[in-house]
Amino acid sequence: MIGAGSMLLVQPTPPQQVAVLHADPDAEWPNQMFGASPEDGQRYNEFHGLTVVTYDQNTGDGASRPCLAVLTTPSGAGFAAGGCGAGPFPATVSLQITSLLPQALRDEFPEDTSLQFVHDDAGVQVYAAQPTTARPNP
Fold this sequence. Notes:
Elements: E1 7-11, E2 16-21, H1 31-34, E3 42-43, E4 50-58, E5 64-72, E6 78-84, E7 92-96, H2 103-108, E8 114-120, E9 123-129, E10 133-137
Antiparallel strand pairs: 1-10, 2-9, 3-4, 4-5, 5-6, 7-8, 8-9
């Protein structure tokens, strides 16, 4: 006797670029999180309720490294995620959309979507990967 069963196939969705954020020199620096704007600090276009900033962090040995932070808007007072680059690797931040993030972001992307922000010479590249879905495999 041969038993019949079903198997679920997990189908990952490849990340896709969804935006390029550009520096906004007129935007207010989020003093609540970082204090006064550093000389090298940049704030970028808002992204669905998120504030994105870059700055250089002193490493303590006279060098610095580029850093990226994603904050909740409008005041930029909530820290969502942050990260710094190292050597040839750019500052990159990855986060998963949850109910704690701004409604504007959740209106644009479903919960559990993964976002990645990558700082480069062109600005901040934003990539999204939809949640992994499982579907029956006959």
